[in-house]
Amino acid sequence: MRSYFVRTVAVITLVGGTTLAYAFSTGPPASRTGAKAVATRPAESNCTVCHSGSLINDPSGQLRILDVPPQYTPGQQYDIRIQLSHAWNPMPPDPIKWGFMITAVQASTGDSAGLWLLAPNAPPDTFKSQKPSTGSFSRRRYISHTRNIIHPIWPQGSTRQGLDSPVEWTLHWKAPPGDSGKVYFFAAGNSANGDGISIDSGDFIFTTAESTTHGGTTDAPPHSPFLPLSFELDAPYPNPMEKCANIDFTLPRPANIELSIFDISGRRIRTLLSGYRDAGTHGWFWDGKKSDGTYADNGLYFMRLRASGENQVLTQKIALARK
Predict the structure, then answer these.
(1) Among the four residues 70, 288, 293, 310, which has the most C-beta atoms within 10 Å?
(2) pLDDT-derived band of residue 3, with 50, 70 and 90 as boundaries?
(3) In this predicted structure, which of 164-168, 172-176, 226-230 has the lowest mean pLDDT?
C-alpha cells in the first residue's frame, strides 16, 4: 500500500475562492462536487453525470477532507489534504486513475470563501483552477487535478495513475480576511478503472463535505447582491468530444425544457432531456449515441435547448471525434 503525500514549493499564486475533483486527464468541468444547496444556490450535480455504472459513495471506498481546522483564524493559511481510498474487487486490468475536485463555500452567501494558493507544485502535481462564467455557481472557484504531459518522470501529473489506495493531494487554503462565519468544503473524487470509458464503465464516484467556522458571532457582510439568473446553455466540455460531453444549462425560473441533439442537416437524432426543471443551473451529458442506441458518425452536431416561457431557443455546436 502506498500513500502519496504532496507538498508545494514556496512561490505562491493567489486564486480566489474554492476547489474541485475527477479523473479527466485535463481536469473535470466546474461545479461537479455534489455540494448541497447553500443560501440561495441550488445543489450541484456530481461526476456521475459522465462517470456512470456504479452507485455514488459505494461502501468499497471513501473520500475524506483532512486537516480542516474546527475554527479558522482570519487570513491564516491551512494545508488541507484530500484523501481517496477504494478497494477494487476484482482489480481492473488497466492502471487505475484517481482524480478530485473541491470548493470552499461561505454558508451565509453560497459563494466562494477564502483563497486557494496555487504554486509551481512539486512533481507530479499540476492543479487546475476554474470558475463558471454564468449560472448559479459563477461566484464559486474550483480546483481539480490535471495532467502534466511534459514532466519526464511524472507523466500522469496529479491524476495519480497506477498508484495504490489511498491516494492524497495537498492544497493550501487561506481563510477569509475577516469573520465570514461558517465555511463548507465540498469535494468529489473519482476512482476510474483506466479503460478510457466513462458512460456505464463502472468508475466509482465519491463525495464528501467538511466545515469550519470563526470563533466570533458576527458574520462578515455578504457579497454584493447576486445578479438574476438568465437563460443560458454553456458550451459543452470537452469539445471536440470523444466519449462524453458535459452540458450545463441555467433556467431563470422553473420551466418545462427540452434538450436535443441535431445533425448538420437539421434532423433531430436524440432528445437528451424533456420535462420539468427547477430554476438554477443543471448538469447533463451526451455520450455520442443516437435515439436507437447506436453511435452517431464523427462530425459536427448542434445542442438545442428550449424552455417554456422563453422565446429564445439556445444552440451550441459540438464536434464528435470518436477514435
Answers:
(1) 288
(2) very low
(3) 226-230
Gap between the Cα atoms of 189 and 82, Å rounded = 9
Query: At residue 33, what is the residue type?
Result: T
Portions of the chain given CATH number 2.60.40.4070: 232-320
The closest alpha carbon to 67, from 183, 177, 172, 214, belongs to: 172
Look up residue 245 and give its three cell numbers. 460531453
Q: How far apart are CA 249 and CA 261, in angstroms?
A: 14
pTM: 0.74
Q: What is the pLDDT of residue 112?
A: 92
Burial 194-217 (b: 16+ CB within 10 A, else e): beebbbebebbbbbbbbebebeee
Q: What is the CATH number of domain 232-320?
A: 2.60.40.4070
pLDDT digits (tens, 9 = 90+) for 261-276: 999 999 999 999 999 9
- Residue 315: CB atoms within 10 A of its CB come to 11
